[in-house]
Design brief:
alpha+beta; 37% helix; 3 strands; single chain
């Protein structure tokens, strides 16, 4: 099994999330560690399935907040600019 986070395609984002993601991409580029990919969830799912994996779960920023940050006093929230993907090798 593999669990990873990935950046959501800028075009899938709105407002401050989109501007923030573009800013992070520029900043990491200046540090010579550019972000090399952003993905649309459906496209990424198709790609990993073609590699022999099944998508077990793909959590949005809202779902990550609900699962890991729910009811925190500081009301921290996860960004919608990244998602959490759980894959399993498809043994079929």
């Amino acid at each position: 099994e593999v669990v990873l986070d990935y950046s959501t395609d800028f075009q899938e984002l709105n407002g401050i999330e989109r501007l923030g993601s573009m800013g992070v991409a520029q900043f990491t580029y200046l540090l010579k560690e550019p972000l090399l990919g952003q993905f649309k969830p459906r496209d990424l799912h198709q790609a990993v399935e073609q590699m022999g994996f099944e998508v077990v779960e793909d959590l949005s920023g809202e779902a990550i907040t609900e699962r890991y940050f729910n009811a925190r006093i500081d009301e921290i929230r996860h960004t919608s600019a990244t998602r959490l993907l759980h894959l399993r090798l498809n043994r079929k």
